[in-house]
Design brief:
Layout lengths: L21 H8 L23 H15 L1 H14 L10 H9 L3 H20 L17 H6 L3 H14 L7 H14 L11 E4 L14 E7 L3 E6 L2 E6 L3 E3 L4 H18 L6 H11 L8 H13 L9
Antiparallel strand pairs: 1-2, 1-5, 2-3, 3-4
Helix pairs in contact: 3-5, 5-7, 7-8, 9-10
Keywords: Plasmid
C-alpha cells in the first residue's frame, strides 16, 4: 500500500525556521527592486479645487480692501479734521495726527489729498475705465494732488500713466512725468511781477494753514509759483494761491516799506507778546495806509526796541 505524501516541510541545512522580516518579503515580491534603474516611484496627486463664486467674490472684496486702505485712512482723517473731533485732547489737527498716529503734517494732508483725487478718478473715468487699475497708495497720487488739476484732467493723467506703465499701476514718477507734460502743454504765463502786493489764499495747501488773509510782497516770480515776503517769513506758493491787490505804484511802495518794518520787529527775539498782536493785525490789514493810532503804536514799539526807520522816497 502506497503511503500518502508527507506534509512536512523539507528542511534545508543552514536555513532558519523563523519567519522572514516583512522587508525581505517585499523584496521577493518586487523583482525589479534590485535594479535601481527600474525603481517605481509612487506620486500622490493633489486636487486643486477652483474657487467657488462666493470665494471669488470674497477674494475680490478683500483685495479691494487692501488696495483701498489708504483711501479709508484719508476719508477718516478728513472727517476728523473737518468736524474737529480732536479738540477735546489737542489744540490743532497737526498735533493730534503727530501724537495719535505718528503722522507728520505733510503725511496727514497727503492722505487727505490723495483721497480726494481717488474719488475724482472714480467719478470721471469712463465706463470702460472700470478695467483700469486704480491707485493702491497715496504716493502714486502725490503729484496729481499737488498739481491741482481739474478732476477730469486728473482722470486723463491717470489713464495716460497706466498706458505708459504697460496697463499696470504706474509709479509716482510716471504720474509726475505725465503731469509735467500736460502742464507744459497748457502752460499759462505767470501774471505776477516783483514788487506787487498779494494776499495769500491757503485753500488746501498745508504750508499756508493759518495764513489766510496775510498780505505780502512778491519777491520772486517762477513758471507756476511766486515767492512772497510777509511779516513773519517767505512763502513760495502756486499762483492759484495768490490774489493780486491792484494798487497804484506809490501804494505798493508804502506796503513794501511797511513789510520791511514788520519783519524787523518780528526778528526781535526778546519782543513782548503784545508786539505779536500788533504784527498779526497789521499783517492782515491789506490797506496802503495806517491809521493815526496804528502809526503811533508802531513807532512807539520800534523806539522801545531801538529800531531806526527812515521812510524811503
Amino acid at each position: 500500500m502506497n503511503k500518502p505524501p508527507s506534509r512536512r516541510k523539507k528542511v534545508i541545512p543552514g536555513a532558519s525556521e523563523e519567519p522572514k522580516p516583512a522587508a525581505d518579503s517585499a523584496k521577493e515580491n518586487n523583482s525589479g527592486q534590485d535594479n535601481p534603474a527600474s525603481a517605481t516611484i509612487t506620486v500622490t496627486a493633489v486636487e486643486v479645487r477652483e474657487l467657488t463664486d462666493q470665494e471669488q467674490s470674497l477674494r475680490l472684496q478683500l483685495e479691494r480692501q487692501v488696495e483701498r486702505a489708504f483711501l479709508s485712512a484719508g476719508q477718516a482723517l478728513m472727517e476728523l479734521r473737518d468736524r474737529r473731533l480732536y479738540r477735546s485732547t489737542h489744540r490743532t489737527f497737526e498735533e493730534y495726527c503727530r501724537e495719535r498716529f505718528n503722522y507728520s503734517r505733510d503725511a496727514a494732508y497727503l492722505k487727505i489729498s490723495a483721497t480726494v483725487v481717488y474719488e475724482n478718478l472714480q467719478k470721471f473715468l469712463p465706463t470702460i475705465g472700470r478695467q483700469i487699475p486704480m491707485p493702491t497708495n497715496e504716493r502714486q497720487l502725490r503729484f496729481l494732488a499737488k498739481a491741482e488739476l481739474e478732476p477730469a484732467v486728473q482722470a486723463d493723467v491717470w489713464q495716460q500713466a497706466v498706458e505708459q506703465a504697460g496697463n499696470k499701476i504706474p509709479s509716482g514718477r510716471i504720474v509726475k512725468d505725465v503731469v509735467d507734460r500736460i502742464r507744459e502743454r497748457t502752460k499759462v504765463p505767470n501774471p505776477y511781477h516783483i514788487g506787487e502786493i498779494c494776499i495769500l489764499l491757503p485753500k488746501d495747501d498745508p504750508d499756508l494753514r493759518g495764513k489766510a488773509g496775510y498780505w505780502g510782497v512778491v519777491s520772486h516770480v517762477g513758471d507756476y509759483s511766486c515767492t512772497v515776503q510777509t511779516w513773519d517769513g517767505d512763502y513760495t506758493v502756486k499762483i492759484e494761491h495768490l490774489k493780486l491787490l491792484e494798487l497804484l505804484d506809490e501804494d505798493c511802495q508804502f506796503m513794501q516799506q511797511l513789510c520791511v518794518r514788520l519783519r524787523q520787529l518780528h526778528q526781535v527775539a526778546s519782543r513782548d507778546s503784545s508786539v505779536d498782536w500788533l504784527l498779526q493785525g497789521l499783517g492782515k490789514q491789506a490797506k496802503p495806509y495806517l491809521s493815526s493810532l496804528q502809526a503811533k503804536l508802531l513807532g512807539t514799539v520800534e523806539r522801545e526796541y531801538k529800531i531806526e526807520w527812515r521812510q524811503q522816497k
